[in-house]
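Run log // design_07
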């Protein structure tokens, strides 16, 4: 069961809602703020990357610190916040990178 993310049907107020499971990857400062390098996230079918980000900020409020300047990647390609996620997608949270 570990490492597997299965779509599921959950009951909310008596209605069945289809969900998708997304693997979220945290890099650099995002990993520091959350304390994890990756995690599964289950969201309703039709959710966008921004919906996923809202769920993540609710779970890890410290992500708000970098929310306005982070970049999202879906399945190893940069993406907009309005992109719909699909089951088994991989969503990367990429904070700004600095260096010299």
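design_07 sequence
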């Amino acid at each position: 069961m570990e490492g597997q993310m299965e779509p599921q049907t959950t009951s909310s107020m008596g209605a069945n809602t289809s969900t998708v499971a997304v693997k979220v990857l945290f890099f650099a400062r995002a990993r520091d703020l959350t304390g994890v390098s990756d995690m599964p996230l289950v969201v309703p079918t039709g959710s966008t990357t921004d919906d996923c980000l809202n769920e993540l900020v609710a779970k890890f409020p410290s992500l708000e610190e970098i929310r306005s300047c982070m970049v999202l990647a879906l399945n190893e390609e940069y993406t907009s916040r309005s992109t719909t996620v699909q089951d088994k997608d991989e969503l990367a949270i990429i904070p700004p990178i600095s260096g010299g």
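The chain is about 20% helix and 35% strand.
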